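Model: You mentioned two targets. I'll fold them one after the other.
Researcher: Yes, keep them separate.
Model: Target one:
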Amino acid sequence: MFFHSYRVLSMILKASIFLFLVACGGGGGKSSPQSSSLNSSSVASQVAQSSIQGSSSSVSTEITNGLYTWWHDRADQQSTTEVAADKVRQSTIYEVRVATVKQADSFKNSFVYMSVPRSGKSKVGYTHEDGAEFAESAKLSMSWTSFLFDSDVWVEIDLKGGAALASVNDVTIRPTTLNFEKQFVDSDTIRIKVPYSEKGYRFSVEFESQQYISYNNNNGSTGQLSLNNNGYAIHREPKNSLLVFAQPNYTSDTRSELVPTGSDIFYPVEGKVDLSNVSAGIIYFKPGIYYMGANAHAYLPANVYWVYFAPGAYVKGAFQFRDAKANYKVTGYGVLSGEQYVYEPDKTNGYKHRLASKSDCHGDCVKMLQFQSSNEQQKLHLQGITINEPPYHSFTLYGNEHTFAMNVSEIQQVGSWYWQ
């Protein structure tokens, strides 16, 4: 079973703005990042607080009245080159703040991540087409932000360096059926009211000044995408897209199901990680930045059955589970990113691009999440995570798929620049 990056699955949002599957504190609006503060005045705050088990030094978390946001202190705000292993890419186009409707004058900064074609790298180890050529030449980008909430909120968005906004009519929210209330703040800021939902929302915010039209230039047998109006129009979409992932905060019930507790837990240290000798059954990534490197992935020991990504955790790597357990879990609102890998990273070729002698690498290339099923009944609970920049398939299941059941919710994917 292969879940390709371009396919629309019930578990992943398909934003209408893409050809592919996509892609901290302070008072008042337009605030700047501030240090973390915790307020456990509500049950939801206590639940969220216990779900992170303490923060790493590179991430500031803000939990106030059921609203949970975070901010990465080690961020690189540029869109042209690869970022360092111990940093995350911050959007150069958008800034986002969130406040509860009940405390509409107390906005919290919500970190805005950014993805660019090939993660700012050139083609490494190959020269043939990989599907990212047009996105690279057109200088496209995908930005997104995530937060947890348990009541109605205002989401305030700044467009940096774009054409001035004239009214709320310059901003479209998709799906348009959401009919969220919009408020005009000033010439570069819009405010959106997001009502609480126990399923959360995943939506696109599209600014009129960011729209462009691509064309088929009719070259060759199928033509190629172009910005030049010398063919026929293909689509109209934002050059620099923005997705908002408004995730439902944990309740006491969902926390017990989705957030691991107990002594059988391994907590990786922020930085470079090697998970090959983990003796615990659960791996728990606290808020922070983790990376495996461009020439490694986590081939997990047979005892590992659950990987948890806390909100604010950003893990650069991929995970391969063994066929050893009846139940598996991959949960949490963190990010799993394939940005360090080249396109089609072949494990039998030192994680370099697949050998030219191979027509494909279905069996050997790195997958973001890979499972192996036996003839015994097994179940996977996949919830919450954001997958960024998969270098090949996002999810694969080998073996007997008829005995492998899945419960999937609140999953999203961004930065699917490559063909699959």
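Model: Target two:
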Amino acid sequence: MALFWIFDSALDALLFREGSFAKNILSPRPEEIWMRLLAIAMLLLAAYTRVIFVARKKAEDALREREDKYHLLFHNSPVGIFTYDTHLQITDCNDRFVEILKSTREKIIGLDMNTLKDRSVLPSIQKAVWGEEGLYEGFYRATTGPAEIWISMHTAPVFDSAGKIKGGIAIVEDTSAHRQMEMSLQRSREQYKNLFNSIRDVIIIADMERNIIDANQPALRNLFGYELEEVIGESARIFYAEEAGYQFTGREIFEKKESTEGKILKVDCRRKNGEVFKGEIFALKLLDEKGMPIGNIGIYRDITEQRIAEEKLINERNFSETVINSLPGIFYIFDDKGKFVRWNKNFEKVSGYSAEEMERMSPLDFFAGKDKELIEERIREVFTKGAAIADATLTSKNGQQIPYLFTGQRLATANTSYLVG
């Protein structure tokens, strides 16, 4: 209509009115002014209506897009989601929540959560309608399905456009697999600790500076007299009788920065009460998963009795060697294969053969002719009858002939028989 008026006014000014066209358009008669104002108002109203329509259309499109995104997120979320009103009645849920409970949507929608069989989740659900966030982590038995699972549930209030709480929303995650893994790890840790503490030798775990991190009980108490809390954080130096022993094990293994093969080291150790004992340490580096050293491991044991037994054995052996080497005649032991296993120094002196040469010789190598045959026969007699005697001449390395009365006595062990003479 406004456009019609403009066209009509222009035509009137051009064809029927006196004066120029521009003057007639720009200088209307008084009775025409209100018509023009009305036309302008209508144009402005039309423009405003168009702007409002476009803005509303954009807002509706944006709202629809947000709702589409919400529904997409709600129904495709990898975690379970459900909403409920202020009476704790479930109003909606996604497929993942149905799957977690092993139930159906029909059984869940409209469920009054005040009637749940497992009420352990209710406090966190109620917090949302009180305007607070809630959290529940634990075991849950479903009401509408057979699920018995470990869950983690977060709840939060939902507000209407006026800012008033109209219900709550809950996000539920099935943590059963994670919980089972945690329980499995816990069992593994307990089994490791039980195994660790069952070992009778003392195991000391220390860092690279040799400060104690862990040790097994009761072995620590039994060997050193310490409680675990007394040694944690202390230097492993407390287990050594002397500083020299501590420095020695450090040079060999514990102070090395690179991975190295473990060693058995013997040092004097000291108990809490000051008592010193003979100790043996299997020393090795503690490695990470990449094989890099991150600490030290020392396995300690008291070898005092073993050392006493070894020293006793050494003394007895030395005594036997002294007695054998003090015999005026020749002494020998060889097995049923004719291999010498022991002899005295006088045998080497008389025969002229060295110890290395004696190891490669047999008893018959010291005889010749009929004496060799006689000795061979008497050796057989010893191993068959138990004893024999022979008069024969021993031939030395330089050919000297020395007459001897040779005796032989059989000595039998579990696996081998020997001739002692």
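Researcher: Noted. Anything on target two?
Model: The longest strand covers residues 148-159.
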